[in-house]
Amino acid sequence: MTDSVFGLMDEWGPEKIVVVSDRKTGMRGVLVLDNTARGTGKGGTRMSPGLTVEEVSRLARTMTWKWAAVDLFHGGAKAGIQGDPNDPNKEAILRAFARALSNEVPSEYVFGLDMGLAEDDAAIFLDELGDRGASTGLPRALGGLPYDQLGVTGYGVAEAAEAAAHSRNIDLKGSRVSIQGFGAVGQAAAVRLVALGATVVAVSTAAGAVHDPNGLDIGKLVNLRAETGDACVHHYGSAVPADYALTVDADILIPAAREDTVNDVIAASTNVKLVIEGANLPTSPSSRRILHERGIAVVPDFIANAGGIVAAAHSMAARYSPFVVEPEDIFTMISTKLRANTTAVLDESGRAGLTPHEAAYALAQKRVLEAMRLRRQIPKTATDTIDVLV
């Protein structure tokens, strides 16, 4: 384990990896503070049975670039618990996790919501540590901003999709969209895309997928998901295997579930014109290169799904305030920042002959590098000592 942890480190970070456990509850978790040159570590907290330190480290690095890309002043971090989010002992596990990280939270890291955690879980973190600043994503009754209910991340993905379509001279109205993943992100993206005039032809959940080349009834699917969860695709009718959403005939593909889902085979065979990364790390460097060489633009995750961190930034600023955050302000900023960033990255990609990821990394890394220089974390003259990661 020691060698594998050291293998995660490079010139950018991580600055700190904290692995914690609790014998009584069986809790096993990790916090990764990747790079905090631009501010306090902030990133979601997830819970999944197969969670690994490497997974959390990769996600923390993505947060470093995401904060820098939207030019908001927090640092990259991520936390996770290895376990079943449906465990009947979940509350005790969450409390043990919070206690184990009380030295780091909230001075170095603030809990948030990610896969496997919901607003009620954020409330548990707050209660256990007795500090309103311990977590974002709190219920409205505790002064929080209901991210999932508002659908801020998915809304931003849809805004990025329209900006990307415009950049590529594609009319979003009538464009066929396939969404892999119909959780909080995919669902909100689908609703917003329909409002913008797109036709959603396929969606998938862990239970399967549904496809209609003439367009799905997204309102019906939303209602079914509220009633039946992932099984909504079966109740909708004519369900097919979940992976089908990655291969259907469409103009735009939005992978909005897990990391590493768009592999080289899919990249080489898909007929879409745009890929908008709704999930974190859904493509690999090799699959992105294949897509780029085929003329298919990929809007990077830390550009397209940054709506959640715009909302998180507002929530971070309001943690100790008696006033609630106004959702209208958040949606306006999400639209402005994500559309501008998407256009800038795709334009730079075309101008410099880079993949969109390479162009986006260059933008984010320049900002982080400057902060590291100003804080004397690296020599002032350092220009070539840190590798650009693509």
Q: What would you note in describing this structure?
A:
This protein has 15 helices and twelve strands. The strands form two sheets. Strands 1, 2, 3, 4, 5 and 6 form a six-stranded mixed sheet that branches. A six-stranded mixed sheet has the order 9-8-7-10-11-12, with helices on both faces. The protein starts with a helix and ends in a 16-residue tail after the last helix. With 390 residues, the chain is of the alpha/beta class. Helix 2 crosses helix 15 and helix 14 crosses helix 15. 43% of the residues lie in helices and 15% in strands. It is globular, with a radius of gyration of 20 Å. The longest helix has 26 residues. It folds into two domains: 143 residues, Leucine Dehydrogenase, chain A, domain 1 (Rossmann fold, 3-Layer(aba) Sandwich), CATH 3.40.50.10860; 155 residues, NAD(P)-binding Rossmann-like Domain (Rossmann fold). The mean pLDDT is 93.
